[in-house]
Design brief:
Layout (H helix, E strand, L loop, with lengths): L17 H19 L13 H7 L23 E7 L3 E11 L6 E11 L4 E11 L7 E11 L3 E11 L2 E11 L4 E13 L12 E14 L3 E8 L3 E11 L2 E10 H5 L1
Antiparallel strand pairs: 1-2, 2-3, 3-4, 4-5, 5-6, 6-7, 7-8, 8-9, 9-10, 10-11, 11-12
Length: 263
């Protein structure tokens, strides 16, 4: 006697039908084409122009007088909750600062952003900000769009801020690596704000405009780093970091406001 085994039934998607099959095939085809582009992770939206703002420029390094740093992790005056989801070619981020619902509604600051690589060099994204200071105040929302393009030795970024309580604006940055030791960066921004009441506000067609431009350079030596920066408001600054020992570093900084000096 020969035992007959029951024919195996191929396992498919639950409830598979023509519509489900079409959606699955479309998704698989899209994924294959997406993988064929060899896209890389673009980073986060908040670091859209990180090479200029956080590496070349002096903003995060400048100080006046004597500076001392002391970390006290057990003392916190602000609650911050953050979660990042990083894929092969995208980054999604959700951040909450001082969120609370104990007063009968949501208040605090909520920031959500998404940045997606669409070509090996181009990434597009957006960021949404929602905030409410107190329950007796109206919530405010702001939406920003961003683009980042990376070449062989240069990176350009563009950010557009939609209409909000403080107006709208556009900013652009450009970073280039001249040599292995020298990199430069520029930043241009233009802000549009509604005029004050009785002084040509939105109903009267008035609009305040303010623009600024800045440029900086970074020089890396064997045991030191020198940064210099100038802007259209008449300020020039420089900073020198010198490593004396592996655990000892000395920083010298200087800044001059030429417009105040000439007044």
């Amino acid at each position: 006697m020969v035992d007959e085994k029951p024919a195996s039934i191929p396992v498919g998607w639950p409830g598979e039908n023509a519509l489900v099959s079409a959606i699955r095939n479309t998704y698989l085809s899209f994924s294959e084409r997406r993988d064929a582009l060899c896209l890389s992770n673009p980073g986060t939206f908040e670091n859209l122009n990180r090479e200029v703002s956080r590496d070349v420029y002096l903003t995060n390094f400048m100080f006046t007088g004597l500076r001392a740093e002391w970390n006290k992790p057990l003392s916190q005056s602000m609650l911050s909750v953050e979660n990042d989801l990083s894929g092969k070619d995208f980054t999604a981020s959700l951040k909450g600062m001082n969120p609370s619902i104990i007063e009968g509604g949501l208040k605090g600051i909520i920031i959500a952003s998404y940045l997606q690589s669409v070509t090996p060099g181009l990434a597009l994204g957006l960021e949404a900000v929602w905030q409410r200071v107190a329950m007796n105040s109206s919530p405010e929302a702001l939406l920003s769009y961003g683009a980042r393009y990376m070449g062989s030795d240069w990176i350009a970024s563009l950010q557009l801020q939609s209409e909000g309580p403080q107006g709208s604006g556009i900013s652009s940055s450009y970073w280039r690596k001249l040599t292995d030791k020298v990199s430069v960066g520029t930043d241009l921004s233009l802000q549009f704000a509604p005029g004050l009441s009785g002084q040509g506000g939105l109903m009267g067609g008035g609009l305040q405009k303010e623009g600024s431009a800045s440029a900086g350079a970074k020089y890396e030596f064997r045991a030191s780093t020198f940064r210099a920066q100038v802007d259209s408001k008449g300020r020039s600054s420089c900073l020198l970091e010198k490593t004396i020992l592996p655990a000892v570093r000395v920083t010298f900084a200087a800044e001059m406001d030429h417009l105040k000096v000439c007044r």
